[in-house]
Design brief:
The protein is of the alpha+beta class and 330 residues long. It folds into two domains: 184 residues, no CATH class; 95 residues, Alpha-Beta Plaits. The chain has ten helices and four strands, in the order H-H-E-H-E-H-H-E-H-E-H-H-H-H. The longest helix has 44 residues. It is elongated and about 105 Å long. The relative contact order is 0.13.
Length: 330
């Protein structure tokens, strides 16, 4: 009795291991089958190289425009982040202020919560800088007195480096009695931001239309493949093949189209960055500045390829579902 129970327990304890091995075997076989199908469908694409290349180039062009817009947006956003000087506030002081009064004012401004730093430019420093920048140093030497006032350069904190924050700070500074004039370029910043946001909205709309065009291109390509292989599909259905079995290669083909289109889009974006680098270097060199254009990083490149493959997969799935069920053996 005990021996039979022990044998039964050994059988029960051993049975899950057998199921586990068989399950892993099925998983490995399924993965191997899908990999083989992916490679096979990739090779099938190049049996008609001209048609495949034209389709991929069209898809790459459609995907490259949103990609290029994204690259441009990234670089413009970087430029905007470097425009801290746009939020600098220049405070022109009254000429009759003594050094003690100026120091008191600097200490007072340092207590403002929305001010990061305060830099003092004396009247003499202001005149020397004006001589260097204007080129009229000899003519200015004939002046009886320095006409320029002392200036305080105020840098707001990061949270106040925007039109709304700058306006609040300017209104507060204008109430200081020792300040003769407050100067900050707020209007052009607001106009530039409004134009930038409008361009972003337009780009999003165009990108959406182009992504829809990718769906239509892949869907139409898969539809033509299905119609061209109608006889083969009828034979497969006659021997008992299910729609799920038949549609799998077309799904992989659609994914390959989208993936390869993403590769072309990535190449276009890289070529654009290389092409624009020299022009940007020449432009920034005129302003004695340095700005390097950045392209897609590794994560963004992977996301682009995944989006292309997903769009192709979705488009092929829609096309297969729509046309495959209509084909039945006669």
């Amino acid at each position: 009795m005990n021996n039979s129970l022990g044998a039964s327990k050994r059988k029960l304890s051993g049975s899950p291991k057998i199921n586990k091995v068989s399950f892993l075997g099925r998983v490995k076989a399924t993965i191997s089958q899908h990999i083989h199908q992916l490679v096979h469908n990739f090779m099938e694409l190049w049996k008609t190289p001209f048609a495949t290349l034209m389709t991929i180039l069209v898809l790459g062009l459609a995907l490259s425009l949103p990609t290029v817009f994204h690259v441009v947006y990234k670089n413009v956003d970087r430029v905007g982040g470097q425009w801290e000087s746009a939020s600098e506030i220049s405070l022109f002081l009254k000429k009759d202020l003594s050094d003690e009064q100026v120091q008191v004012l600097i200490n007072k401004l340092g207590l403002y919560e929305n001010i990061e730093t305060v830099t003092y430019i004396s009247r003499h420093q202001a005149l020397q800088e004006f001589k260097e920048m204007s080129g009229f140093s000899k003519a200015l030497n004939y002046l009886d007195e320095n006409p320029l006032p002392a200036v305080l350069i105020v840098i707001p904190v990061q949270s106040a480096m925007n039109p709304a924050g700058s306006k609040l700070l300017v209104a507060k500074l204008e109430r200081e009695q020792d300040i003769d004039l407050v100067r900050v370029d707020i209007d052009w910043i607001e106009k530039l931001q409004a134009i930038f946001y409008l361009v972003v909205d337009i780009v999003i709309a165009i990108a959406t239309l182009l992504l829809l065009s990718v769906l239509l291109i892949v869907s139409n390509t898969i539809r033509l493949n299905i119609l061209n292989q109608r006889a083969e599909i009828e034979v497969l259905k006659l021997v008992g093949a299910t729609n799920r079995f038949i549609q799998l290669p077309y799904l992989y083909i659609g994914a390959w189209y989208g993936f390869l289109g993403g590769v072309i889009a990535w190449l276009f974006s890289v070529i654009m960055v290389i092409w624009l680098e020299s022009g940007v270097d020449n432009l920034t060199g005129l302003y004695k500045a340095k700005f390097d254009i950045i392209s897609l990083n590794f994560n963004e490149s992977i996301i682009l390829l995944i989006i292309g493959a997903l769009l192709g997969l979705i488009a092929s799935f829609i096309s297969v579902k729509q046309y495959l069920v209509t084909i039945e053996p006669k």
